[in-house]
Amino acid sequence: MHNHSFLMHTVLQMYTKLADSRLVRALFVGVAALVVQTAVFEMLGVYLRLFPLSIAVLISAETGILTNFYLNNRFSFSDRQHEISLPSRLLRFHLVVSGSVFLQWLFVFLAERQTNNLLLIHGAYAAGIILGFAWNYTLYLLFVWRRPDSSEL
To answer: What sign has the CA pseudo-torsion 149, 137, 31, 69?
Structure first.
């Protein structure tokens, strides 16, 4: 019975550390924003065909950006609220994620020029998102929600 208690305590400690981890919180927020972004992309570009896929990427990326910023500001980086105004942080956030949005747009733009195969186009879409995550998270820490007393930047 003692081993069971020790195991439960260890699992609970690991769960608490993960829940307190900024990276894990940012990852969950990123996934939520990605779901919103992808739903908008699929609806506007694939199902309703209101826009070319490369334009749907840009529109959906903005919905993902706003979702991501709001959730990160309230959840992942809420302890880093300081003298930088909300509009300034939002502008910084847009600057940070613009590289990722550009990659998403470029990959989908090139793919849709080469093929109508939705599997390949979705692969290009995913590649832009995957490449952007590490870049975005690093710049979130260094630029958007950096500590006011930090020399991180």
So the answer is: positive
